[in-house]
Amino acid sequence: MFNLKRLLREPLLHFLLIGAGLFLLYEVSQEQIPDAPDRIVISPGQLQQLQAQFKRTWMREPGQQELDKMIKGYVRDEVYYREALALGLDRNDPQVRQRMRLKLEFLLEDLTAEEPPSDAILNTFLQQHPDRFFIQPQVSFQQLYLNPDKRADFDADAKRILKQLQQGADIATLGDATMLPYELTQASQNKIRQSFGEAFAADVVKLPVGDWSGPVYSQLGVHLVRVSEHQAGYLPELAQVRDQVERDYLAQRRQQLKDMAYEKLLEGYEVVIQEAVDQETVNQEDATKKDAGANVSDETVAATQAVEVAQK
After folding, report:
1. Are residues 202 and 174 in the same domain?
2. At 24, is the secondary structure helix, strand, or coil?
């Protein structure tokens, strides 16, 4: 049975569409730019584009004088553009090359657009890339900071203060001043990492829930921590992250199709990478040739002199 959906997913069809699209684009561009280099034609479609641009900017239709001004601006752009092409200013310009590449990539992206993916496809993509969508562990905790610059033996102080906290001491009467947050609620490892650093974020998710623990070290000093809630990380169901999965899938698929299209276009080219010339070797070869030429000249002069002596 003929399967239209399967046909639409065939890469060969995409290549045919790309070829047809490029052909149509070429034909359209040839119709828009006349053969005569000294003739500039402003079509009704271009007039409509100018009017639409004006309306988007000023929220009204342009008057005749305003339209005439836009037409003169368009003509000026076209004259400069053609004269620049005639002078070859588009060649060997990295910015022009990059701009043309981007335009072609946008064209290929439009031509390779696919129908929305099914839940089955997205779920497979989710399972194949769990790291992209994994919900990190979340921790709610309080922390008491001890500044190592203000304590001669902060390890001993940490053990002593930890015991006081476990016995019910008031946290407000202990610890040192800091700009770090005293409490975080349902914070992911990324959020914890931003405030306390990598080591602290990795250790705090391992602490038990309920009582004060520590010491826990960070790049700023020593912390005593009480975890009140700990939610384990997990890979969510598709329904929870469907929009994100679809965006990532379509982005990856578009890139794959563009890469396939590029490989197909590349088949029409021969790429030659020339070896760099070793200037020192060239200089040595030139010197050898000069020496050889000098020796030949000396031998020729000697032979000529010998002939002249014999004749005399």
Report:
1. yes
2. helix
Rounded-to-integer distance, Cα 173 and Cα 156, Å: 18
CA atoms of 168 and 161, how far apart (whole Å) = 11
Contacts (Cβ under 8 Å, ≥6 apart) of 217: 199, 200, 203, 223
Instruction: List the domain range (segments joined by +) for residue 181.
Output: 136-231
Which strands form 138-146's sheet, in the order they lie side by side? 183-188, 138-146, 222-231, 212-217
Whether this prediction's pTM lies above 0.70 is answered by: no
**Rounded-to-5 percentages of helix, strand, coil across the chain:** 60, 10, 25
In a domain, 145, yes or no: yes
Among residues 206, 234, 204, 232, which one has the least CA distance to residue 131?
234
Measured CA to CA, the distance from residue 74 to residue 85 in angstroms comes to: 16
| 79-93 per-position pLDDT tens digit | 988 888 888 888 888
22 confidence band (pLDDT: 50, 70, 90): low
